[in-house]
Write a structure and sequence with these properties.
Length: about 200
């Protein structure tokens, strides 16, 4: 009986240590794959989770002439083809939705948007059930990182760009019990941030 108790205590201690380590590096870092080309004009957030650029040229989010989303993760990342397709579709739909929610800009340039999923972290629902029982917190958090470029559809000049990475916070409790839900929330978050960049300075 004592050995079982000691094992349980050791397991709990190990999980607590893991939680501490994860908490110490709670911000996923924005990626730099070369997809965005010259990043010298981009402004990076203090925590390294986001970098963005916005040209002064007016752009019209209601004139998106093309929207492409690509996948940059290796096969070893462990996502099946249906899961890959689901995440690509999630990001594409989120970008389209957020762009349409912005006000039209008279005289703004027509757009071509290209995006790349550079990182995706799924979660283990089983592990999160165990850690939720032992620690009251589902430990495996999940998230995603993307790089997105907004081009003038006619001149192909960059009008805006963004690299965004996001670990889903513990407040999204339910999402941690579904394998892809945190990654999908992170992709939706990226689309929201892109809309802010497209809208320009002063966007909330």
């Amino acid at each position: 009986m004592k050995s079982i108790t000691h094992t349980a205590r050791a397991l709990r201690l190990g999980l607590l240590l893991s939680a501490t380590v994860l908490g110490a590096c709670s911000t996923m870092q924005a990626t730099d794959t070369g997809f965005l080309g010259d990043r010298s004009a981009m402004t990076t957030s203090a925590d390294g989770g986001t970098a963005h650029f916005r040209a002064a040229t007016p752009l019209d989010p209601h004139q998106v002439r093309s929207l492409s989303v690509e996948w940059a993760l290796p096969a070893e990342a462990g996502f099946s083809e249906p899961e890959k397709a689901q995440l690509l579709s999630t990001l594409q739909a989120a970008i389209a939705k957020e762009a349409q929610a912005l006000p039209a800009v008279a005289g703004g340039r027509p757009l071509a948007i290209r995006a790349l999923i550079t990182r995706a972290e799924s979660v283990s629902p089983v592990l999160n059930v165990v850690t939720a029982v032992l620690l009251t917190v589902p430990l495996d958090r999940g998230g995603a990182a993307v790089e997105i470029e907004v081009l003038d559809a006619e001149t192909r000049q960059p009008l805006a760009s963004m690299a965004h990475a996001y670990f889903v916070p513990v407040s999204e409790f339910r999402a941690r019990f579904s394998r892809l839900a945190p990654a999908e929330l992170a992709l939706a978050s990226a689309a929201v941030e892109l809309a802010k960049v497209m809208q320009g300075p002063g966007a909330n």
